[in-house]
Amino acid sequence: MSERSPYLPVRARLEDVRVESSTIRTVVLAPEEEIRFRTGQFVELTVPGVGEAPFTPSSNPRRAERMEVTILRAGRVTSAIHALAPGAEIGVRGPYGNGYDLGALSGKDLAIIGGGVGLAPLRSLVLEVLEEPERFGAIRIRFGAREPGELIFRGEIERWRRHPSVDLALTVDRAGGDGWTENVGVVTTILQDVAPNPARTEAIVCGPPVMLKFTTLKLLELGIPAASIHLSMERNMSCGVGHCGHCRLGKYYVCVDGPVLTYDKIQAEVDAWF
Ligand SMILES: Cc1cc2nc3c(=O)[nH]c(=O)nc-3n(C[C@H](O)[C@H](O)[C@H](O)COP(=O)(O)OP(=O)(O)OC[C@H]3O[C@@H](n4cnc5c(N)ncnc54)[C@H](O)[C@@H]3O)c2cc1C
Ligand code: FES
Questions:
Q1: Of 17, 47, 60, 178, which residue is least crowded by CB atoms under 10 Å?
Q2: Collapsing DSSP states into helix, strand and coil, what is residue 91?
Q3: What's the CA-to-centroid distance between 183 and ligand 1, angstroms?
């Protein structure tokens, strides 16, 4: 059987839509052909007549027959996806980029840190890690959102919290009035105990640029080596396959060499956080 071209979109049927918050939805896609991806890789979703945009699947890569993508409404393409109803068709091309190297994370303590819609690829990672938790040391998860209503995947997070290998803490920037009983503050305020053994910890971080920046500085302060801080970098992307140069970060093309880059590779770049 011939290999599928990575440049051609595969048609996928939108099977379900889950409302995660007022601005975030998860779409459940059934592609016509199975799309195998590594957690942390990204795909380009095409809405016919509107355009395409990159997203990192939030589902378990070991369940390739259904792909879930968690999408924050930002502009044209994301609004068009939010407006789709079950039964609609969408194009998926990819996967692209490197994703998380689970082999390199094996045997290590994991510090999985996310903010906002950055929880999407981390959900995929956690679901895969929890398939074989014995491969890893302690799994410490720290998630943040602006407000309780914007903290997505709440039901699953509570299930992960009960897992014997998992140590999990949540925070919100503003508690509001809806019974929030956990930490209030930005995500760096719940990182103090995330790496009791920094030399054997691999930190995986995904969130908005300002959160990546201050989380990285905190992790360095805790003693985690720059090469053990794995950052999901977002850049404006066009081709997704290393041709157009839109996603350039120093000598790297984020679409091919990333989106996951360790901090040692980008620390000299003045525009790393923008
Ligand atoms: C590798 C990668 C993975 C991503 N994964 C996810 C994901 O899982 N879920 C998710 O919700 N979003 C994800 N994004 C961001 C998503 O691609 C953008 O939100 C989307 O391209 C916006 O498209 P739009 O047509 O709706 O907005 P546009 O109409 O193009 O723009 C709306 C606004 O968003 C800004 N914008 C456009 N593209 C980006 C971008 N790449 N990053 C930040 N701001 C942007 C524009 O400057 C503008 O202000 C990812 C981006 C990358 C590069
Ligand atoms: S998006 Fe074209 S080179 Fe990366």
A1: 178
A2: strand
A3: 29
Please state, in angstroms and rounded to a whole number, the distance separating the CA atoms of residues 95 and 101: 15
Instruction: Note the pLDDT of residue 1.
Output: 46
Q: Is 261 exposed, middle or buried (0-12, 13-18, 19+ CB in 10 A)?
A: buried
51-55 β-sheet, strand order: 51-55, 42-47, 89-96, 10-19, 24-31, 67-72
Nearest CA to ligand 1 atom 20: 53
The CA dihedral of 22, 206, 249, 216, to the nearest 10 degrees, is: 130
Nearest ligand to the C-alpha of residue 53? 1
Contact 205, 232 (CB under 8 A): yes
Ligand 1 atom closest to Cα of residue 255: 1
Judged by its nearest atom, the ligand closest to the C-alpha of residue 243 is: 2
- How far is Cα 262 from Cα 100, in angstroms, rounded to an integer? 11
Angle at Cα 102 formed by Cα 100 and Cα 105, nearest 5°? 105
pTM of structure: 0.93
Ligand 2, residues 41, 52, 96, 238: which to mutate, most atoms within 8 A of Cβ? 238
Nearest to 90 by CA among 145, 61, 53: 53
- Closest atom, ligand 2, to C-alpha of 240: 1
Structure tokens at 125: 């990672």
φ, ψ dihedrals at 211, nearest 5°: -70, -40
Q: Is the CB of 207 under 6 A from ligand 1?
A: no
Residue whose C-alpha is closest to residue 56's, from 21, 22, 92 = 92
* Residue numbers of the chain with a pLDDT score lower than 50: 1
Residue 271's CB is within 10 A of a number of other CB atoms, namely 10
Render pLDDT for 33-72 as a digit per residue (tens, 0 to 9): 999 999 999 999 999 999 999 999 999 999 988 999 999 9
